[in-house]
């Protein structure tokens, strides 16, 4: 009954780990979950109120498929103001999260066998959605030593006549790596030699860059790539709106038109109440985002300090997002108190789970042996989690 390709598709890893942690908690085990990819802050109040107002005013009917005009206009204002990018509303589509926007784009562009280049470590949905759309994910690894930044030469070596997309995620989930202007220019130089390759730029962590550094988009580095770039962004991370399910894409009109056609048969327009809240979010004061960023930065520094003290673990300081991608190469081959040998990062993550901390193993992000620590939780919990991780590692022989 179930289609063959489903046997190759994985359930989202963070949802699996979160569910496992919840199950253990229900059985009475004390587990701290550092697996979630969502801020622990509430949706800003002015955004909440805009959503409530939309409900009360009866803005609860089917919205237009690509999104209500005020939202698409607000997206254009945002892209002009923050990214110096000129788009018109007919070049914008809203979807049920950035995830759906990415899926729509892949679904309307991939013919069977078309290739999508995904630098690893990656957000798992890029690879799974590509496979769901009958495309072929081509993974290009980065290394901890090079700060998990895509090497332009390795990118070029991976391009073939079948390459349709390069997916760039800047800042990156799970590594927190941020691509600077120089680096983006290097990537653009390669892309100029391969006009068949489009860029999907997932900028969802754009407002979460630390140490006073600025965000640079691929289109700032290479405006000439605009007619083959889809900019993807959303409300989940910056505006703490994971449950509202709203994201958007901006790109060439033909692409957006086809994504709209696809969405018209798949899910229709995104939640209208969320869209009105989205207008308030994009047009509103961003002071809360500055405060949240400062808190995230303190937490990052805390986790870096505590993880850095654990023999066997090694972490590169993330410049953005809210994750630390920790190498556990130093634990591989060690024995647990039960005598089991840890030979992969899922085994390390399972061991740490039973020691009281749930995290997603690197396998889920295409680069091993690592695990991802999400620091989207308060400092006290992070301290206790890192204490447990250190104690668990100390028990290994
Ligand atoms: C890099 C990246 N892109 C997209 C998403 C999905 O965002 P949304 O909630 O808007 O679907 C996530 C969520 O974890 C993410 O990490």
Question: What does the model show?
Answer:
- With 397 residues, this protein is an alpha/beta fold.
- The protein folds into two domains: 4-30 and 288-394, Aspartate Aminotransferase, domain 1 (Alpha-Beta Complex), CATH 3.90.1150; 59-283, 3-Layer(aba) Sandwich (Aspartate Aminotransferase, domain 2).
- Helix content is 40%, strand content 14%.
- It has helices at 13-26, 45-56, 69-83, 98-109, 125-132, 152-158, 181-192, 218-221, 253-266, 272-283, 287-308, 345-354, 379-394, and strands at 32-33, 92-95, 115-120, 136-141, 163-169, 198-202, 229-234, 247-250, 314-315, 323-327, 357-358, 360-361, 370-374.
- The strands form three sheets. Strands 2-8-7-6-5-3-4 form a seven-stranded mixed β-sheet, sandwiched between helices.
- Helix 4 (98-109) packs parallel to helix 5, helix 6 packs parallel to helix 7 and helix 11 runs parallel beside helix 13 (379-394).
- The longest helix is centred in the C-terminal third of the chain and has 22 residues, at 287-308.
- The relative contact order is 0.17.
- Pyridoxal-5'-phosphate binds at residues 37, 97-99, 123, 169, 173, 202, 204, 234, 236, 242, 247.
Write the layout of secondary structure elements.
Blueprint: H1 13-26, E1 32-33, H2 45-56, H3 69-83, E2 92-95, H4 98-109, E3 115-120, H5 125-132, E4 136-141, H6 152-158, E5 163-169, H7 181-192, E6 198-202, H8 218-221, E7 229-234, E8 247-250, H9 253-266, H10 272-283, H11 287-308, E9 314-315, E10 323-327, H12 345-354, E11 357-358, E12 360-361, E13 370-374, H13 379-394
Parallel strand pairs: 1-11, 3-4, 3-5, 5-6, 6-7
Antiparallel strand pairs: 2-8, 7-8, 9-10, 10-13, 12-13
The protein binds pyridoxal-5'-phosphate (PLP).
Pyridoxal-5'-phosphate (PLP) is lined by residues 37, 97-99, 123, 169, 173, 202, 204, 234, 236, 242, 247.
């Amino acid at each position: 009954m179930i289609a063959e390709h489903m046997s190759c598709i994985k359930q989202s890893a963070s949802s699996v780990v979160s569910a496992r942690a919840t199950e253990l908690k229900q059985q009475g085990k004390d587990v701290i979950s550092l697996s979630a990819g969502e801020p622990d802050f509430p949706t800003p109040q002015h955004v909440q109120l805009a959503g409530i107002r939309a409900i009360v005013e009866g803005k609860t009917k089917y919205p237009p498929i690509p999104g209500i005009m005020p939202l698409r206009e607000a997206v254009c204002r945002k892209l002009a103001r923050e990214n110096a990018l000129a788009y018109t509303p007919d070049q914008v589509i809203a979807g049920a999260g950035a995830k759906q926007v990415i899926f729509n784009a892949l679904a309307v562009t991939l013919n069977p066998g078309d290739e999508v280049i995904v630098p690893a470590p990656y957000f798992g949905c890029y690879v799974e959605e590509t496979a769901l759309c009958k495309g072929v994910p081509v993974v290009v690894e980065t290394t901890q030593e090079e700060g998990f930044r895509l090497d332009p030469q390795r990118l070029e070596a991976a391009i073939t006549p079948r390459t349709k997309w390069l997916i760039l995620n800047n800042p990156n989930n799970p590594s927190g790596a941020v691509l600077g202007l120089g680096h983006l220019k290097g990537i653009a130089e390669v892309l100029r030699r391969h006009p068949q390759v489009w860029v999907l730029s997932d900028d969802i962590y754009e407002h979460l860059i630390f140490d006073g550094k600025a965000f640079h988009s691929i289109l700032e580095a290479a405006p000439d790539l605009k007619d083959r770039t889809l900019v993807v962004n959303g409300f989940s991370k910056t505006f703490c709106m994971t449950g509202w399910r709203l994201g958007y894409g901006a790109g060439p009109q033909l692409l957006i038109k086809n994504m709209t056609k696809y969405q018209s048969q798949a899910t229709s327009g995104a939640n209208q109440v969320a869209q009105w809240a989205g207008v308030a979010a994009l047009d509103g004061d961003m002071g809360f985002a500055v405060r949240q960023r400062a808190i995230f930065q303190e937490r990052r520094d805390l986790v870096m300090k505590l993880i850095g003290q654990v023999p066997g673990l090694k972490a590169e300081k993330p410049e953005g997002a809210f994750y630390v991608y920790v190498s556990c190469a130093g634990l591989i081959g060690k024995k647990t108190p039960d005598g089991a040998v840890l030979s992969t990062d899922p085994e390390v993550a399972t061991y740490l789970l039973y020691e009281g901390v749930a995290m997603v193993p690197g396998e889920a992000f295409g680069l091993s042996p690592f695990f991802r620590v999400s620091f989207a939780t308060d400092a006290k919990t992070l301290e206790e989690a890192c204490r447990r991780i250190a104690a668990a590692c100390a028990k290994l022989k």
